[in-house]
Amino acid sequence: MTFAKNQNFEQVYLHSSQFPDRVYQDYLEGFKQQKIPHKFHYDSVKQSQKWLKIHQVFSPSRNNEDCVVSYEQCFEKTATILNHKSVVELIGLGSGGGTKDTLLLSSLVTTNKELIYYPIDVSLSLAVISAQKARNNYPQVLVKPVVCDLLYADNLIKQLSSENNSQKIITFFGMIPNFTPEEILPILNNFLNQDDILLLSANLAPGDNYLAGIEKILPQYDNDLTKDWLMTILTDVGILESNGKINFTIENDQKISDLKRINAHFLLNKDVTLQLDEEIIKWQKNDQIQLFFSYRYTTEKVKIILQEYNINVVEYWEAPNQEEAVYICQKL
Ligand SMILES: C[S@@+](CC[C@H](N)C(=O)[O-])C[C@H]1O[C@@H](n2cnc3c(N)ncnc32)[C@H](O)[C@@H]1O
User: Fold this and answer.
1) Measured in angstroms, how far is the CA atom of residue 258 from the centroid of ligand 1?
2) E strands, the chain, where?
3) What is the pLDDT of residues 109-164, one digit of tens each?
4) What is the 3-state secondary structure (H, E, C) of 158-193?
5) Looking at the chain, which terminus has fewer C-beta neighbours within 10 angstroms, N or C?
């Protein structure tokens, strides 16, 4: 039987960073340290479906036509700045539902180049959703979904690419807010080579007053749908909603003083004991379990911080409401 040609099978590449024993160690560590890594909010089908729903309701890129136009303009421009190479490899880091990467493909197919798309996500469910979306819309594109944790995959790009005669476009849409700059930017810098194009988007704080801008968009996080999504990892191990409360706060980055993020933690109102396999984990009343954060940037901050990691913003498009922007970047 040829699996590749059989519609009942989807071929997915699983990077060692997401091998089950590795993932389980990260999972236990998250509970022990009271810091849940973001990747565990997207892991199950239930969580990824909840996240897709939130994205549909609150993301400007899904519900604001002007914001979609910014992406379209960026993607049309990208198609015009490709080099002479006959193959384009599109590497979608944290591809999510794949909507933005598929929109990008709609511009890239007009170039008549051979296209290979790698939707890469920590969630199997989301990597496959991205792959199928792209393939259904553009059957001529070779699609190879990869499950991978970007934080533990230094060698990823070198191992993916088999093509010598290709130009790489790396996308990093909506990702930069969910990592500290110091953990993710060295990785992006390492992934990017001189001829590559990096497209990234960031959630912004709108208006001239940075803090007031963040306060304005806080309801996009502090809402029932988001709380229900973030609670899933806790309810799955037996913690009840009545055992505490999710609080959203605005806090400073620990290294970059004028960069802020929205933070969510679960404040326990009683002691709880968790049994995860052999491990007994004891949490106490008033402990704060770190669940999630999202940095809010301004374009000025994006430019300055990327530059520190040798990444240059070549051109950008901000949505008129200034809540999101998309950037074409290259290595300095
Ligand atoms: C905010 S969403 C952005 C999705 C998509 N790029 C978009 O703009 O709609 C973050 C995505 O990153 C994935 N993700 C989170 N942590 C990750 C990690 N450490 N490595 C790879 N993917 C990760 C999640 O599964 C999710 O699909």
Assistant:
1) 25
2) 13-14, 87-93, 114-121, 142-143, 146-147, 166-173, 197-203, 244-252, 260-268, 272-276, 279-283, 288-296, 311-318, 324-331
3) 999 999 999 999 999 999 999 999 999 999 999 999 999 999 999 989 988 876 67
4) HHHCCCCCEEEEEEEECCHHHCCHHHHHHHHHHHCC
5) N
Ligand 1 neighbours (beta carbon < 6 A): 38-39, 42, 55, 94-97, 100, 121-123, 126, 148-151, 173-175, 178
175, 176, 291: residue to mutate for ligand 1 pocket, most atoms within 8 A of CB: 175
* Token output for 210: 């940075």
Q: Tell me which architecture the domain covering 10-38+59-207+297-331 has in CATH.
A: 3-Layer(aba) Sandwich (3.40)
How many A from CA of 127 to the centre of ligand 1? 10
DSSP type of residue 225: H
Nearest to 55 by CA among 130, 105, 111, 118: 130
Residues 6+ positions from 24 with CB-CB distance below 8 Å: none
Q: What would the pLDDT profile of 194-228 be if each residue is shown by its tens digit?
A: 999 999 999 999 999 999 999 999 999 999 999 99
Contact 291, 246 (CB under 8 A): yes
- Where do the domains of the chain lie? 10-38+59-207+297-331, 210-296
**pLDDT band at 58; cut points 50, 70, 90:** confident
Q: What percent of the chain has pLDDT over 70?
A: 97
Closest residue to atom 3 of ligand 1, CA basis: 174
- Measured between alpha carbons, how far is 192 from 202 in angstroms, rounded to an integer? 18
Q: How far is the CA of 134 from the centre of ligand 1 (A)?
A: 17
CB 41 within 8 A of CB 178: no
